[in-house]
């Protein structure tokens, strides 16, 4: 049986999505202006499944611990592992990435007042076909963030810049999201759109449920890019905070 795989361009796009989510507040891809207080700790983890039309899925796992270091700033480290599959759903190639991420609030977000923050990330990757070269520095990104609270709503806006050294591509990024807390009990729901100036944007929906108030959450998201090949990404995650 002939093996089908994601194209080089498709792989690059999926890796960009995976690294971009290192900046975000789960389960959204859009970043928020909140930050971890000094001495606080968060552990985010999620499974993801990415597809492009007429290819087999790319599946992976992302884990990201983060801590508050004071001065309205948090620092985290992201670890990402993904596998490609052929027509027989046999694993064929693997990709790994490691990222250093951070966020600083320039104006702290409160229940009654908007917040402003700057988020950034740098990562290194090891992609299919590059195993002998080991990890190589790849993406750098910086993102300006505004979050506006209104009753039980949170509205987020992002604008930023990213540079892929391996692909030699620089892009301006953007994102908008609306988040409604406590829609039904402890269930939060959100919608978002995001993208860059190099390709059509994405549309997504997300949900989060508090198993233990302010400490343990489960979440999920789904997004599709507005292209004929219909790139899609699905995530299911777990977050611990204290």
Describe the structure.
With about 240 residues, the chain is mainly beta. The protein has a single domain (about 10-240), classed as monomeric porin ompg (Porin). Helix content is about 5%, strand content about 65%. The chain is built from one helix and twelve strands; from the N terminus they run H-E-E-E-E-E-E-E-E-E-E-E-E. Strands 1-2-3-4-5-6-7-8-9-10-11-12 form a twelve-stranded antiparallel beta barrel. Strand 8 (about 170-185) and strand 9 (about 185-195) form a beta hairpin.
Query: Average pLDDT across residues?
Result: 87
Q: Helical residue percent?
A: under 10%
Shape: globular
Largest sheet: 12 strands, antiparallel, barrel
Named CATH topology: Porin
Structural class: mainly beta
The end-to-end distance, rounded to whole angstroms, is 50 Å
CATH architecture: Beta Barrel
What count of structural domains? Answer: 1
Supply the CATH class.
Mainly Beta
Going by CATH, the homologous superfamily would be monomeric porin ompg
Helical segment count = 1
Strand line-up in the sheet with most strands: 1-2-3-4-5-6-7-8-9-10-11-12
Order of helices and strands: HEEEEEEEEEEEE
Strand content: over 45%
Flag low-confidence runs: 1-23
Nearest-angstrom radius of gyration? 18 Å
Number of strand elements: 12
